[in-house]
Amino acid sequence: MFQYYFLLGVRSLRRNPALTALMVLTLAIGVAASVATLTILHVMSGDPIPHKSDRLFVPLIDNGQPENYKPGDDIDDRQMSYRDATNILNSKAGERRTAIFGISLAFEPARKDIGAFNAAGLATAGDFFNMFEAPFRYGQGWSPADDKSGADVIVLSRELAEKLYGDTDPVGQRITAGGIQFQVVGVLDKWSVVPRYHRIIGSNDGAFSEEDEMFIPFSSAIRHEMQRNGSTSCYDDIAPGFQAFLDSECTWIQAWIETRSASDRAELQSFLDSYAIEQRKLGRLKRAAPNKLYNVREWLDYMKVVGNDNKLSAWLAFGFLALCLVNTIGLLLAKFSVRAAEVGIRRALGASRREIFTQFLIETTVVGLVGGVLGLLLAFGALALIAMQSKALTLVAHMDWIMLLTTFGLAVLSAILAGLLPTWRACQVTPALQLKSQ
Length: 438
Fold this sequence. Notes:
alpha+beta; 2 domains; 6-stranded mixed barrel; 16 helices; about 50% helix; cell membrane; transmembrane helix
């Protein structure tokens, strides 16, 4: 019986092509608008490393000045001073530790067909690659000994490696960058992390920036007194010179700590609190503010990666879908009202209200399926247009299988909901009145 009613629903689409087209288009536009917005929100709010997001922590230590500070105020800076970052790196907190700041180097390729160019990347500790599970195409990251000595080694992104060396393994090659000879020890494979949780601060597009092009040891960047490519906050004037800057309370480094399990969080918090007490004895951390730990999900929330504007856009899109459903209900009422005589005859011949209800609801589902296909095409088009606006939007304006299925499900569900009232009204037809009018 379902197959019979389904075929009737397909045929009914041709009874009034103009009305059917208007219903399908109305439903498709509403579904496309809501799904496109929901897709972007879904990508932006996703967990980028779900199997260990509760074991990766950002520590925040408030080293601000006590003036105008009130207990309970939020920490002004989300980064660390050099002193705090290196103390954490040299500690035994957690299983792995890293410190990160942005750099930009001028590359001088050996190839004559490529001129000098700038590339942006990170100065970080060797644990970085294992902590964030960066995939390697060639080679590997540098060793703890390289971290300790500040070795001039470098890991390239796949794109930068192909630009410099083509599709060959460049491990062991030497490249001049920033006037320094670096030895290539590894090449990352394609590594598109969305949201880019490990490097939100200091990058142009925040959590939706493009991949970093190269990585060098944190200690090497410090040894060469490299300029920072990112944000820096200083409360007081500092003396001239790089060492004076390192000794200052300026915050410009992002720290991360990985624990063996989520249950080690309390132990890590205890370490931070003990560290802060020691530093206060040395005359630092004068605010005596509580130290904070944020795992990946908490960090994304704290940094407002998904802002109120994004959530409002999603609600507005669903409001637009609701408006489209109201219009679809009106169109379905008009479509079913002209078939009152047909319903009356079927009822007189013995069809029950349940059978009429089932038939018309299946016909509505057919409308939802057609609207879903069209809505999916419109959603793909909308996402393509959004992706053209900026490189950051390119990372989030794409549809996965979850959203693909959601599009069809939303279209069919919307059509069924819109068809409940018209279908119920169609079942209330009185057979005697309809037969009398014929």
